[in-house]
Amino acid sequence: MGSSGSRWGLGLILCLGLGGAGAVRADTGACRDDQVELRWQGGQARFSVELADTEAERSQGLMYREKMAASAGMLFVYPRPQPARFWMANTLIPLDMIFADAEGRVTKVHAMARPQDRTTIEGGEAVQFVLEINGGLARRLGIAEGAEMRHPAIIGGAWPCAAE
Question: Among 59, 117, 126, 153, which residue carries the largest CB count within 10 Å?
Fold first, then answer.
């Protein structure tokens, strides 16, 4: 599911190994509207994102996209926590959907949503943010429930943006 190309950001997932057993870390600069950072036990990642923060953008999602860079994604932002239900109609690429609460804590990861599938994907009852990335990437990186998400839309969350 996708949104308007005007906010599309290019970038790389920044995973730099640190001296521990498989620890990865993303650069921890100030938050940007076109980036989402995640951290979890043993790692961090950053994605360049397109925002879907209006009803029209959330409805369009990543539909009709034939490809997406491994470092890219779409962040769905809702005005308040609410039930989240997605489907893959008219979506041409497999996606991982990372559901988070108002604090930016990951509450569910739905892996490998199938292209063109109209089956409803339940994200939970108190979802305020959903990050869609390429299918299989969440598992490869280790992103799971309990991870923390950071973005300027997440006000005072579990992992707040640094003051500029």
Answer: 153
